[in-house]
Amino acid sequence: xxxxxxxxxxxxxxxxxxxxxxxxxxxxxxxxxxxxxxxxxxxxxxxxxxxxxxxxxxxxxxxxxxxxxxxxxxxxxxxxxxxxxxxxxxxxxxxxxxxxxxxxxxxxxxxxxxxxxxxxxxxxxxxxxxxxxxxxxxxxxxxxxxxxxxxxxxxxxxxxxxxxxxxxxxxxxxxxxxxxxxxxxxxxxxxxxxxxxxxxxxxxxxxxxxxxxxxxxxxxxxxxxxxxxxxxxxxxxxxxxxxxxxxxxxxxxxxxxxxxxxxxxxxxxxxxxxxxxxxxxxxxxxxxxxxxxxxxxxxxxxxxxxxxxxxxxxxxxxxxxxxxxxxxxxxxxxxxxxxxxxxxxxxxxxxxxxxxxxxxxxxxxxxxxxxxxxxxxxxxxxxxxxxxxxxxxxxxxxxxxxxxxxxxxxxxxxxxxxxxxxxxxxxxxxxxxxxxxxxxxxxxxxxxxxxxxxxxxxxxxxxxxxxxxxxxxxxxxxxxxxxxxxxxxxxxxxxxxxxxxxxxxxxxxxxxxxxxxxxxxxxxxxxxxxxxxxxxxxxxxxxxxxxxxxxxxxxxxxxxxxxxxxxxxxxxxxxxxxxxxxxxxxxxxxxxxxxxxxxxxxxxxxxxxxxxxxxxxxxxxxxxxxxxxxxxxxxxxxxxxxxxxxxxxxxxxxxxxxxxxxxxxxxxxxxxxxxxxxxxxxxxxxxxxxxxxxxxxxxxxxxxxxxxxxxxxxxxxxxxxxxxxxxxxxxxxxxxxxxxxxxxxxxxxxxxxxxxxxxxxxxxxxxxxxxxxxxxxxxxxxxxxxxxxxxxxxxxxxxxxxxxxxxxxxxxxxxxxxxxxxxxxxxxxxxxxxxxxxxxxxxxxxxxxxxxxxxxxxxxxxxxxxxxxxxxxxxxxxxxxxxxxxxxxxxxxxxxxxxxxxxxxxxxxxxxxxxxxxxxxxxxxxxxxxxxxxxxxxxxxxxxxxxxxxxxxxxxxxxxxxxxxxxxxxxxxxxxxxxxxxxxxxxxxxxxxxxxxxxxxxxxxxxxxxxxxxxxxxxxxxxxxxxxxxxxxxxxxxxxxxxxxxxxxxxxxxxxxxxxxxxxxxxxxxxxxxxxxxxxxxxxxxxxxxxxxxxxxxxxxxxxxxxxxxxxxxxxxxxxxxxxxxxxxxxxxxxxxxxxxxxxxxxxxxxxxxxxxxxxxxxxxxxxxxxxxxxxxxxxxxxxxxxxxxxxxxxxxxxxxxxxxxxxxxxxxxxxxxxxxxxxxxxxxxxxxxxxxxxxxxxxxxxxxxxxxxxxxxxxxxxxxxxxxxxxxxxxxxxxxxxxxxxxxxxxxxxxxxxxxxxxxxxxxxxxxxxxxxxxxxxxxxxxxxxxxxxxxxxxxxxxxxxxxxxxxxxxxxxxxxxxxxxxxxxxxxxxxxxxxxxxxxxxxxxxxxxxxxxxxxxxxxxxxxxxxxxxxx
Length: 1418
Fold this sequence. Notes:
35 helices
């Protein structure tokens, strides 16, 4: 076989190690062995195998368990390998240490039924005899009868926590060398000569110290002195529930190790809980901070010295009344991973039992995290995984004295293998229990099916908003004919009540329908004139069970979305007679349009307002473009546009998601007037059906040509529902105008007459909240109009006795996980329809369509779809991206469409380097208090955004903001991903818009000025990050270099776009701004906005658009923290997390140099701009002395150009910018990351107006081979700590040890000086090891002089300035990187074919001319 680099490689290689040790890494370089394994006599040998074909390492190992010889196998996929270390033996054989990010898969060998010895079963069918195991225990005790605990297992081998494996190679070094060489082609490299200290195994002290049985004594105590006994050397320590939970979050995620936590750490947490403390929540927030950072903290006590942790702001101070903090946990076969509470919309149960809302826990069951979903199957090899699920469902989860037990799950939750649990504390009486809540939900005595009972319980857990007003319930009847219900799930609501709902949701437009819950009722409510006052009309089909609770709860509102085709609908339409060219033309046109929209604002707005998504994100982007943000190259807006294109292309390639301009996707409802004509069975299967015999619908949707106006669709249409697998699922109907129905918008109205209701013919739909697509594009009308619909009758729900509700629900949940075949059936149908000439009309496809309907109803009926092996596809078309051996190249329409679209690449790395919009940055004078308040809110917003990204496994904030998610969820279908993310994003926006408006009101700020401040602090963070990325620093290993930049290291920039409308008003001027409605009404006005005020085109005028870091209130603390306007700025926190993560460096040269070949006006040559190597001053020759700008006094700091309006008071701290790459190779002076303090007052007295000239031919050349004091070189991993005493005014020359130091490389000089400068000097800095004074230059045109005054601090606060990050758009700032610095490619299987370009930045070092312009040439 061939490797990914096309090198020949054997399929497998193996060797026999001497010993395998399970253990953990306690601290870097410290390994704690937990359990040793060696070979046993006979055929049970310890064996290491590298399977390159399956891309995994396998370790076979034997154990004697309860006197029985057992054989196990550990499968380590390449994707979970974190690091492989090679440890040299001390005079003996070497070892390997393999660390994994996730527990491997473990299997146990089973003896064949015939009793044949294991050695004879090493054949192609061997995997059938390897059974999945989730634990290895030596005793006969059955742990499945107990709750699953978070504690380390006291028996056997802890497969979930002992995930670092030590292999003694013995004499297998040569075999390993061969494996190692091939692994490099999979980007798996061994770290050579790693030093590990093996420490003695011990039990963690933490579990002994925690006194969970003495609950919350500190929190509940009335007197602090009463609890001092808890701090005695022998006493156990009790933590409040919220702190105890958050500690478990850190432990379960590997942030903290229980082996590193001692009494001192717990006592410090307790100390923070003192009643007289300023922040009683600080103990919890410190732990939340650690969890949010996502990095291991090997010394927990460091958290109490971390300024960021001690000033961490909670993100949940202001939560809307319809939201709640929800705790979550993921249960894998070997671990429990808890999550920090996140904000989500409430449901009825959490609202009703608010006094215990902190005790609810949402649990999701998965395979190991990097494996994803627990897969269904007929075989029992993986039954141990399901047994663990059943154990948790039946006995719960235990954390100390707290125990969570199963409560209920909803229909959507069970499909995602999730449910709600309720916690209680052992030894405490709690009246609100799981059984009590289930009893109070309603009366379920009439339900004898466990599946239906589970579905009705789940109805109460729907995410809803409660309308706090009294309603009048009116009972009305259903319309039923011939065994079909024409009003299944639809009721009525008054216009007054609809207005209250719209007001509650913050919607101004008139709404026609609402999906709702009310007691035991569900479905939709549609506005009708005959519903008066605050009436709600309910039908029997909507009442699922009787309940006392009658509050009106809204799930969602009716809205318009564009119609789209997908692979299933295209397959159906193709078999009904629509020719391939129609779909190909649609695809070709859309590909052209998407490309054009990236540069043409008019085309972009046209597409965005036509291709409206369900969350209305496209209309928001269109408004941004209308406000001129595309023209100015605004980075956030440009990124959204690129993301929209990438998401659209991804959908085109993976799903053939063709947008249909003449189409809609809306809720369905019934014609209460009885006007519309219904379906006739006489038309089924007939050709040439007269138009007047087709069923009728009514549809009124927004008119894209007249924004703000609606149009009524008339003529022939297609109507259907997703997914459509049967040829009769898509119906041809006639749309008509009915005056009595004109008050209904953004819904499709179906008739109440006919032999069968139309919704049930569309994939078995009804009217309780189903969405339907309607298409009136004549080119998509098939030649076959009325194929007979599928006659599907849902199986009767299984009637079974319920011994106990909890046990019955747990059994059904586990059986559903094992038997859910929905995805498998849909994929088999797609493959078969493409392979067979009859397409979707083939008998196998018809059988699969019936089976699919059974699988859909399984969650309600309890009857699983029985899979028949005969329905398994023989081969798969290439567009399904299966293994080559089972794939063929499809020549059908779906194959053609797939071949037209390349893999989507979302590459936004250069956007961070683009300048922000001057129209907003320069609109107002923004005082410091305003900026600080905006910055404080942004800190909370960023934390909340990152939590959502982590919770939903989304890579970028842009995907959350728009709901255009490019990655697939590990668990569950991505069918509802956009809806779920949209709900989370909407909640986030609502929370922080409210918080911002509250801040404006309380502080008396102007709203538009506050929004401008939000934009400015975001811009400042980005500029600071770009500056720091170009500064050299000392890495953990002692080397000096630039910081690696990835998408995680840059600040979030979506914060100001919480207010897109206000941003547009500021940018355009409130008096000038036109809306989409204005443009659609008067298209000629659009040209007025084609050139917004501010920056011209995309090419940036660096003099007026980019400034230094002055005025940004930016400092860096002694411990390396970045502080911006009083808030910690989190930059480059992931520099060392994972060396395999693709990274990027700003500036590729080791040395950053000064310009010595700079030429300006008046013939200035190389000798005019010089560096005095003795004084470290850059200056001009004597001939330019008259033009020197550095005639300053101690009280008169140098001034640089500033964008602040006159009268503003920016910070008076200036930092020379030393960033350039177009410099003389012979001179190297590099800035250091942390400037060295020198005496400001003395330094100012020493400044010379002009540096001592040196003739150009005699420029000194730095000799990197000259000696340097040994104390200047730091030990690997050490921190450069200041500083010995030295006279500030002669910083370099005063110490005799500096003799000859000017002939070293500048990095060496920096290291030496950093270790030899006084630490008690005033707040002024030495930059790059030199006392920098001035740069003077003259250029043509507007270019003139530049000044840099070292770094003066007159405010007593150290701040940085001097980098503008100026960019010329005409220059290509991005380069292609290969190898380790190349783009990060996501797996096509996991990300659905999307290839992510790592969001990294490459900034070209500026030229001398750019620097001169930026530093203030007039």
